[in-house]
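Lecture notes, unit on protein representations.

Consider one protein chain, 378 amino acids long.
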Amino acid sequence: MNTKQYKSYFNSPSGIYALSHSVGPMPKATKHALEQYYLAPWEELGGDAWPLWLEGIDLFCGSIAKLINAQEREICPQANLASGFSAYLTSIAKLEGNAESRVILMHEDAFASMGFVVSSLAQTYNLSLVLIEDDPNDLHAWDKALTKNNVLACLFTHVHSNTSLKSDIPSLVKLATKHKAYSLVDIAQSAGVVPVDAKAWNADAIFGSCVKWLCGGPGAGFMYVKAEQLANLNPDPVGWFSHQNPFEFDIKNYQAADTAKRFWGGTPSVSAYIAARSSIEMMLDIGIENVALHNLELKRHLLNCLPTHVDIKPAMSDLANQGGTLCIGSDNMDDAANRLTEAGIRFDRRGDIFRLSLHIINTVEDAKSIALCFERHN
């Protein structure tokens, strides 16, 4: 796939950038968006900029809705995944019909922050965390845990950050629904490189971030909440932007928004959503399917170019079950790390695994250069 024109859309660090699983490269459109839709209104209008800023955040919610095939009213801005996950858990834990269900079930490879959220709510809401230790797609293991425990909700990770393994979300959601547990999905490592379809999945809630493959920068998280649930969910805590009319300012009259924004909270960081919205629209114009196909092509090329002694890697046949990141190990991690660094490749390492992510800005030549760093040198 010829994607060379897209590299000109970004300002990326020098060398070969392979860190989109951490922070995506910055689109050139970001500076313009911040200047036009955030800084200029602030400079010219001061406190009267709020209507324009809020319009920008509504546009952000609309872009997220298009990205994941949802309604705009089902989207709420969040600072990060943990804030949305915490708010949602408080809302379902308080429901009278859920009094006997206190277990939150997730896989042991889930993002640690999500486990911390459950631990922080344990005493106040009597929640407990149970971890699945088998293959994340082992339906028997999930079914066994759901049968054994009084499970309130399952958190499924669409793409696992340490392995890049992709979960079979439709099958897992069906299983949770069968056991009358809420189905929640973390899409932090998939949004922007793996297609997401909220309607097809039928999950109760989805939590995401724009900082990685969406190239939207930090601070612009989001959550999706199924529309038919909204009226019954009242999260802790709330703030003036959780209100149906945030500018009413009647301390005696709190009326929760009738959209997912009842999960919003206090004053938002406007700039993060303005920046992220411009990036999401650019990614939608490129096409997430095109990003996914390009990423797959580069991963195949990199694997084909790897020396045969590198055996800690996904099989070519497994790539369909992977997210955008390649997780590769070496028999001499330090030597490989030095060569990757010397070659100007931006990567990261977790224990005995290198995480390497090739985005729309990367080329076949980049993939080959990375593979050459795993050659043995006597």
